[in-house]
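Notes from the 1:1 (GR / supervisor)

We went over the backlog. Supervisor wanted to see one worked example end to end before approving the batch request, so GR pasted a single chain during the call. The sequence is below; no edits were made to it. Supervisor asked that the structure be written out right there so they could see what the output format looks like.
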Amino acid sequence: MKSLGRHLLLEFYGCNAKLLNDVNKVEQIMVAAAKACEAQVVDVVFHRFNPHGVSGVVVIAESHFSIHTWPEYGFVSIDLFTCGEEIDPWKAHQYLVKRLKPKNSTVLELKRGILSLPDSEIKHKP
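Structure output shown during the call:
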């Protein structure tokens, strides 16, 4: 059985609060993570909340990367959703670990769009 996409759910604990509250740095890191796995960036939208926290999405041709930060807890929740077989979301994960430096983290990988079609009938291009 083939899947249409891979979805990594990341939770990072013990990250730097100042970094997690800087919308520009968080945006730069997420865009660079998309580029680290050679995804094609289509659009970028980020927002800083008052008094703290950042949410954003990097729309990629292959799906999307999203992030939500809780600086007051040093916590980050990230979704890395890629479609097709050419983009490896684990490369983006490795990049994010290097940049956000969590003290602890969890990762769950889900297969999205599991189809019971022959491989020849599944088209992976978005």
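Supervisor's comment: The chain has three helices and six strands.
Batch request approved.
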